[in-house]
Specification:
By secondary structure, this protein is an all-alpha fold. It is built from 10 helices and no strands. Helix content is about 55%, strand content about 0%. α1 packs across α5 and α8 packs antiparallel against α10.
Length: about 190
């Protein structure tokens, strides 16, 4: 069985076994909000908003942090004591947080048009959904922080961030740095 299939199997089994007190989850999430913002709406540079993220995606990311399959020391430290049940409870909690809102500034129509052409060319809305809300193990990217989106796409492109497979690295290989900036700009402003 491939590694990601084993991860998903463990997490699905864990999700069926645990039900937590919501107040306990909220109390424990205060630490998360220190970086990811109140109610999961990040105001910290290069730190993602968690609100409205797909529960299966969040579950897998938390598992990857705990197992150091995805390395970012603060998250590795935060998740190292999490049980499988904790991972499921937190991923469900994240999915119920309010979705991030787009920035209030007026969007640049030229940048939006360029990004929409790239989205069509690379079929971003196939995996991430037409409204970029994500699905299952594919993240919500609509209204995510622009700086975080650009950073993440650059990391996939240069292969310093690994996904479940090489899909994102492959998709982003022909995309230029300027195009990544336009995509991040657009995705942060999806209405």
């Amino acid at each position: 069985m491939p590694k990601i299939a084993k991860i998903i199997t463990v997490l699905v089994l864990a999700s069926a076994a645990f039900s937590a007190d919501a107040a306990t989850v909220e109390e424990r999430a205060v630490t998360c909000f220190a970086c990811h913002g109140e109610h999961g709406q990040s105001e910290m540079e290069n730190t993602p908003s968690l609100g409205g993220q797909q529960a299966p995606y969040a579950l897998i990311q938390l598992f990857m942090f705990r197992e150091k399959l995805r390395t970012f020391e603060p998250m590795n430290d935060m998740t190292k004591s999490f049980t499988d049940d904790d991972l499921r409870v937190f991923s469900d909690f994240i999915a119920k947080l309010p979705k991030p809102a787009p920035p209030a500034d007026a969007a640049d129509p030229a940048r939006i048009a360029r990004a929409q052409a790239l989205v069509a060319q690379h079929r971003c809305n196939t995996c991430h959904n037409p409204d970029f809300s994500g699905k299952e193990n594919v993240p919500r990217i609509a209204n995510q922080r622009e700086d975080y989106l650009a950073k993440t796409m650059r990391e996939y492109k240069d292969n310093s961030r690994h996904g479940y497979d090489g899909t994102m690295a492959e998709v982003l290989q022909p995309v230029t740095t300027d195009q990544i900036a336009d995509l991040a700009y657009f995705l942060a402003r999806v209405h």
